[in-house]
Amino acid sequence: DEYFGMNTDVDAVVYLQLVNNLLHDLFPNAITIGEDVSGMPAFCRPWYEGGVGFDYRLNMAIADKWIEVMKHSDYDWGMADITHTMTNRRYAEACVGYAESHDQALVGDKTIAFWLMDKDMYDYMAAPGHGASSPVIDRGIALHKMIRLITMALGGESYLNFMGNEFGHPEWIDFPRDDTYDPSTGAFVPGNGGSMEKCRRRWDLCDAEFLRYKFLAAFDRAMCHLDKAFGFMSAPHQWVSRKDEGDKVVVVERGDLVMVFNFHPTTSYTDYRVGCNNAGAYKLVLSSDEEVFGGWRNLSKETDGDHVSFGGDHDRRPNSFLVYAPSRTCAVYGPADWADPEADRKPAGVPGLGVKELGPYYEY
Predict the structure, then answer these.
(1) Cα 101 to chain center, whole Å?
(2) pLDDT in tens, 129-165
(3) CA atoms of 337 and 317, how far apart (whole Å)
(4) Beta-strand (E) ranges in the chain?
């Protein structure tokens, strides 16, 4: 009754079906994305199946979940809670995953970067050798990378970013506003005097060699190119084999890749056993701890070797291998045949990414 009873606005649903049908008939390559808070079933199924006809729906719960999580101590972050929110979506209905959107960047709210680093961003974002840093900034940069990669890995079949948030833009957006009154309550709503000071994005920040924003921009680029190479976001295989509340570790399989997230604030793990579906040798193709991403190089493709899987059930997986998982890092392991630790030194290489050539599933 909630979705298909008399409470449903039938005219609105039929209108959306007609619009999606028309768009896909006239423009076969068009992609339509719906924003729906009701969880309407078949929202992303074609009209002839009784669906509304959108190609994707926004996975809106993820951004709210990250804000909720960041209000708590790092030791209280729930691994099962986070992964459940990421994967709680209807089967065969494609979603757009995102850690934050324009909602968090507008005046009155805070971006993930600002939730993590707050006022320290104004004084301690200097790159090594260019000024002072702080533990708040070190923590924030590490978690910012982890939050974005686990959202990309589990949040849906595509990934959304709002302009500038990928490199931790420090300020909000505020369009010119005059004083006004709320039409429903009559309450006074102060404006900003028509100011355009915050009506901008500071793209120069991520280009500045003396600031740490460049590290976040480089990581965002690398993880997007990782998807180009392996197509993991559209891969049908997705499995969360571990969500350990004590270790604060999440292990994810997506396509051919195995991803290891260690959210623990202080503990690193040596010879940590992680499950995998496919047997064979794995190599590190992406690590948030690379120097080019502002990491400490405790886990780097330059020094990491082969990880040969061995049989035997572990975390309900038929195979497993051992890894080093430093505190507050995420690492992606791919088939050894498609790994190349020197890939980023080649003309077409992406800094920090260790994928051989263009990867197995690259599409232009």
Answers:
(1) 11
(2) 999 999 999 999 999 999 999 999 999 999 999 999 9
(3) 22
(4) 33-34, 56-58, 95-97, 158-159, 180-181, 188-189, 238-244, 249-254, 257-262, 269-276, 281-287, 307-308, 310-314, 317-325, 329-335
Angle (CA) 310-296-164 rounded to 5° is 105
Gap between the Cα atoms of 266 and 300, Å rounded: 19
Classify each residue of 188-219 as buried b or exposed e, where b means 16 or more C-beta atoms within 10 Å of its C-beta: eeeebeeeeeeeeeeeebbeeeebbbbbbbbb
pLDDT value of position 364: 60
Let me know how many helices (H) and strands (E) the chain has, helices first: 8, 15
* Residue 236 backbone phi and psi in degrees, to 5: -70, -25
Rounded to whole angstroms, the Cα distance separating 97 from 280 reads 30
CB 329 within 8 A of CB 351: no
pLDDT at 104 > cutoff 90: no
- 207 and 214 Cβ atoms separated by less than 8 Å: yes
Alpha helices in 71-109, H assignment, sequence order:
79-87, 102-105
What is this structure's pTM? 0.95
pLDDT in tens, 267-311: 999 999 999 999 999 999 999 999 999 999 999 999 999 999 999
Percent residues over pLDDT 90 in the chain:
90
- What is the C-alpha R_g of the chain? 22
* pLDDT given at position 4: 81
